Amino acid sequence: DAGVIQSPRHEVTEMGQEVTLRCKPISGHNSLFWYRQTMMRGLELLIYFNNNVPIDDSGMPEDRFSAKMPNASFSTLKIQPSEPRDSAVYFCASSRETGGYGYTFGSGTRLTVV
Amino acid sequence: AQSVTQLGSHVSVSEGALVLLRCNYSSSVPPYLFWYVQYPNQGLQLLLKYTSAATLVKGINGFEAEFKKSETSFHLTKPSAHMSDAAEYFCAVRGNAGNNRKLIWGLGTSLAVNP
Fold this sequence. Notes:
The structure holds 2 protein chains of 2 kinds. Chain A is mostly beta strands. Chain A is 0% helix and 54% strand. In chain A, strands 2, 4, 5, 6, 9, 10 and 11 form a 7-stranded mixed beta sheet that branches. Chain A has a 4-stranded antiparallel beta sheet with strand order 1-3-8-7, with no helix packed on it. The radius of gyration of chain A is 13 Å and the shape is globular. In chain B, strands 2, 4, 5, 9, 10 and 11 form a 6-stranded mixed beta sheet that branches. In chain B, 38% of the residues are buried. Chains A and B meet through strand 5, strand 9 and strand 10 of A and strand 4, strand 5 and strand 9 of B.
């Protein structure tokens, strides 16, 4: 099991550019979560999917952020246009649907918007 | 609504000393409880979890936690700290009813281990 795979590991982009973060969850996991972590705000849940359907996107900061999960093995988080305040580490995590399972996190994408 | 409170955002111990990281929760349903560890520049890793079986839960790296319903607590302990234990620790709670799949997170406790 390769775990949750995120790409890229690091991204540096200029303000106004589009940024796409990618995530491959663990096979067999039904739920997928996108988190953002900063020193100021800690760990924030942006959106989560269950069986590829967005269940709760109340954490998405604004319309510049969008997330998709076209199939069970792939999800993207897009920021368009990006702003310096979007600089953070973005984590993807997956989990089985039922039972007391925790999440398995990816290694994160460190985004810097200059 | 569920919530998690981690007492102490920073804890410092000497190498070989007892580690105690505190977590209190509120939940209207029997909870699932988790401790995660985050090493610098890494993702979060599951340390241990409580899922209504044994109240004393053993995890990786010598950590354990005890679920105390009467105190609504799930404190994390380790008898003897190692330098490699220096990291950020997060407590989380998840309801086990309905469609609630979200973890509710504490703000984290940064553990420093002094030689």
